Amino acid sequence: METTATDAATTTTVNGGLHSFKVKPLQLILNRAFALIYLFAILALFYNHSLKLLNSTSFISFFILFLILISDIILAFMWLTIQSFRMCPLTRTEYPEKLKKFSAGKFPALDIFICTADPYKEPPLNVVNTALSVMAYDYPVEKVSVYVSDDGGSELTLFAFMEAAKFAVFWLPFCRENKIIERCPDAYFSANYSENSETQKIKLMYENMKTRIENVVERGKVEEDYINNEEERQAFSKYWIAGFTRHNHPSIIQVLLESGKDRDITGHGMPNLIYLSREKSKNSPHYFKAGALNALLRVSGIMTNAPIILTLDCDMYSNDPSTPKRALCYFLDQTLRPNLAYVQFPQRFHGLNDTDIYGSELKGLFHTNPVGMDGLRGPNYVGTGCFFRRRAFFGNPSLFEKPEIPELFPDHDVKKPIQAQEILQLAHQVSSCNYENESNWGSKMGFRYGSLVEDYYTGYRLQCEGWKSVFCNPERPAFLGDVPISLHDVVSQNKRWSVGLLEVGFSKYSPLTFGVRSMGFVMAHCYAHYAFWPIWSIPISLYAFIPQLTLLNGVPIFPKVSDPWFFLYVFLFLGAYGQDCLVFMSAQGTWKRWWNDQRIWMIRGLTSFLFGTIEYVTKHLGMATQGFSLTSKVVDDDQGKRYHQGIFEFGVVSPMFVMLATAAIINLVAFLKALADIFKGDQSLDGLFIQMFIAGFVVINCLPIYEAMVLRADKGRMPTKVTIISTFLVGILYIAFAFLLRSV
Ligand SMILES: O=c1ccn([C@@H]2O[C@H](COP(=O)(O)OP(=O)(O)O[C@H]3O[C@H](CO)[C@@H](O)[C@H](O)[C@H]3O)[C@@H](O)[C@H]2O)c(=O)[nH]1
Ligand SMILES: [Mn+2]
What we know:
Elements: E1 2-5, E2 10-13, E3 19-23, H1 25-55, H2 59-83, E4 91-94, E5 110-116, H3 124-135, E6 144-150, H4 155-177, H5 185-190, H6 197-219, H7 230-237, E7 252-257, E8 272-277, H8 288-303, E9 308-313, E10 317-318, H9 323-331, E11 340-344, H10 363-374, E12 386-389, E13 395-396, E14 399-400, H11 421-430, H12 454-464, E15 468-471, E16 479-480, H13 487-505, H14 511-519, H15 521-531, H16 537-552, H17 565-586, H18 591-606, H19 608-620, H20 637-644, H21 655-680, H22 685-701, H23 703-711, H24 720-740
Parallel strand pairs: 5-6, 5-9, 6-8, 11-15
Antiparallel strand pairs: 1-2, 2-3, 3-4, 7-8, 9-12, 10-16, 11-12, 13-14
Helix pairs in contact: 1-2, 1-17, 2-15, 2-16, 3-4, 4-6, 8-11, 13-19, 14-15, 16-18, 16-21, 16-22, 18-19, 21-22, 21-24
The structure holds uridine-5'-diphosphate-glucose (UPG) and manganese (II) ion (MN).
């Protein structure tokens, strides 16, 4: 190990020179000092709260102060947990070019898993693009196997992949020989590429494939004229048996390309390409994506059993062919983290609008927080763009958890070709829906069941077992995915996450109990921060209504401007927002994006977090719930246009929007009424300043909501029904509070 220090940073190069890491001692000290000061401010706030509670004169004023206290306790808890990410941030660099000294034979084999679940929400053409981008990795081709899991059980997806296998024979050598970096065909043809006869030819082929796939999807089935031979017909006929539905069908496994057998047009080898749609039955739980990944783990175990695995969502295409080599820089180094389970790349997205109106970048979640966790035991797993060591799924680093059959042992050597009768038979067996009955899959082995955020939960449990991870964040994004482009999709996705996170937070594996025991206080609090994300809904909702409803009635609830305690509030507000902004900006952020990021946090608080919490509670009372509702990856033209103009997309009647609109109206009304009262001289600004500031701040954040309610006529406007219901609710709240507060 070699260390060089400059004033601002210490860089350590790890032996072999495959990678280095950097810590900034000054930043570290400042973060900790600030945390300490802020902590004292919070304690002072609670002292002030208790004084006020003790002095309250009526039940209703006691109750209101008590609600504010609860909010502040939760805010303080969330602040405390966020500090875990700020204790030892660490950044890494890797040097894949140095791998040249390793002969290709030394590279470990790589199994790539791509999950898809619905051909209408996840267009097969896009899934195919993702697959092609990784099949073309700059990696010894005979070592790469791409497995597609189709939870939609759809012949459309299989058809798309048959087409992809044919196109790959041209695409792979094209990329290799022209040293193309953009190996996702759609991304390549949408960017500026040099037009010549060769690119024109390949583009024509791509367009041809695209049309065929889109036609088939439009028709909803693979018709005669699209089937080329008996072999293909046999494959499709599996979907045509009576009673076949996506929720009820036998396993379908199709080897579409076989390495060592199939060749590209230059005679060079091809990677394996395998399609899998695991068996489904109404009588067995399938555990959504975690179940799909475990089926992939086993099927790939039988067929190729590569020691390194890459998991990808269907929309996350590769944006850099050197990515597996980057991951190898860490896996090949045994000294730094001998218990290294996974190397996580950040989720990055293409097609964001300029100011990222929905905060889809999720900089905290995907960028700055993982940097913080990397200085501890490593980042959490975010479901896609993550390379795993297969062994990590079979027990902790020192205690191997034996799978049922020896063929699934992570060190088992597959000797037979993937299309051998025995192999295919075994692959069908391990992808059957009863295979996991009474086994350790999902509890001690594989991806873990029990949470809708299987990624977070699996990474967490692996780290509790003693596994470590690394955050790999190269300058050129390694993967690029789709973002939801309507607000309803955004908040629904976050609602699903909220349910999943609470499932972990309140389980026997809660980070606050089990986590602290297994991984230590600071690391466990990183996980606790996420597990309790949804309870942010409590302070956000209370702060969206209580100060405003009291303001409407002219009742002050915070210190006056002339009161010295006022400065505590100023410090707490500026401190929290200032630090958040600083962290955001230091990670290549812009002001506008930060502003939108803090706005979406409030929006989520009133929608996703709140409704997610409610759904979690009803789920645990045994009422029906939604399960894993897929995020749509289809772009409606009009919607896409509005998104790129930075216009919010409402458009649907949803209880979540009612909540949002109600808060927006209340804040505006309260702010204007207080302003009028002050001008008339009925009220003094001194006593109501904090309440007015909060209402005013919310109003500025809500500008797009008012616009959507009154100024817009397009399809994405706030539905009139929502506006009417919300106005009605505002009236009720106003009357109720006027009644409650009449004696205060
Ligand atoms: O029953 C299912 C449901 C989903 N998926 C796949 O899971 C992936 C993620 O689904 P998506 O609808 O895109 O959810 P997001 O909320 O965008 O995904 C984030 O959150 C998920 C957990 O809720 C993680 O699994 C993802 O990796 C993470 O990117 C997609 O490829 C789906 O095809 C399945 O394979 N089977
Ligand atoms: Mn997604």
